[in-house]
Automatic annotation (TrEMBL):
<dbReference type="InterPro" id="IPR022051">
    <property type="entry name" value="DUF3611"/>
</dbReference>
<feature type="transmembrane region" description="Helical">
    <location>
        <begin position="109"/>
        <end position="136"/>
    </location>
</feature>
<keyword id="KW-0472">Membrane</keyword>
<feature type="transmembrane region" description="Helical">
    <location>
        <begin position="160"/>
        <end position="184"/>
    </location>
</feature>
<protein>
    <recommendedName>
        <fullName>DUF3611 family protein</fullName>
    </recommendedName>
</protein>
<keyword id="KW-0812">Transmembrane</keyword>
<feature type="transmembrane region" description="Helical">
    <location>
        <begin position="30"/>
        <end position="51"/>
    </location>
</feature>
<dbReference type="Pfam" id="PF12263">
    <property type="entry name" value="DUF3611"/>
</dbReference>
<keyword id="KW-1133">Transmembrane helix</keyword>
<feature type="transmembrane region" description="Helical">
    <location>
        <begin position="63"/>
        <end position="83"/>
    </location>
</feature>
């Protein structure tokens, strides 16, 4: 009985390099966005709970809240794409060249991650702009040097938390864009 032994060929250097870059970038993007994203989502949901508890809605908050939530949902998609980078890096280390992902499909995934981050950062900026406008309107209606007896005219902590949640979400998307651009620069050669 003769057994066939297949001699595995070593990975080409460019495939090893690409797998290492994808693994490293996937880890940085995944963990960086996950940690900052959990903080952004927690701030968002705390502020939403505060707004619901107040049972009064400032004019214009609903669209800003929608943009903020959509920005966080886009962030979740970006985190999943960064996790996928790590899985692709593992597949690239397969000695069988037929089972390795194609370069074109990997670059498409990186572009999809960039698009997710760009849409998310746009929505988060729109949400933050809306909240800044709301805060400005409230503060500009208070006369200079006047004592404020009607606290409904003051910004609430929930509104400020919503602004903070948006800025954290923007930072998360910025990190994802940096990772995506780094990957495009390193892998699209």
């Amino acid at each position: 009985m003769s057994q066939k032994y297949e001699i595995s060929r070593p990975l080409p250097p460019n495939v090893k390099r690409a797998a290492t870059i994808l693994q490293w970038s996937g880890n940085v993007g995944f963990w960086g966005q996950l940690v900052l994203g959990v903080l952004a989502a927690a701030l968002l949901f705390l502020s939403l709970a505060g707004l619901v508890a107040q049972q009064k809605s400032t004019e214009g908050t609903s669209f800003s809240v929608f943009c903020s939530v959509a920005g966080v949902i886009s962030l979740v998609i970006s985190i999943l794409i960064c996790f996928r980078y790590k899985k692709i890096a593992q597949l690239m280390r397969n000695p069988d060249a037929k089972l390795r992902p194609k370069k074109s499909s990997t670059l498409r995934l990186i572009r999809a991650g960039l698009l997710s981050n760009l849409v998310g950062i746009f929505l988060s900026i729109i949400g933050a702009e809306g909240f800044v406008g709301i805060l400005w309107r409230k503060l500009s209606n208070i006369p200079q040097g006047a004592a404020v007896y009607d606290t409904s005219k003051l910004p609430t902590p929930s509104e400020i938390l919503l602004l903070l949640a948006n800025t954290h979400t923007i930072l998360c998307h910025f990190a994802g864009i940096v990772v995506g651009l780094y990957l495009l620069d390193r892998l699209d050669r």
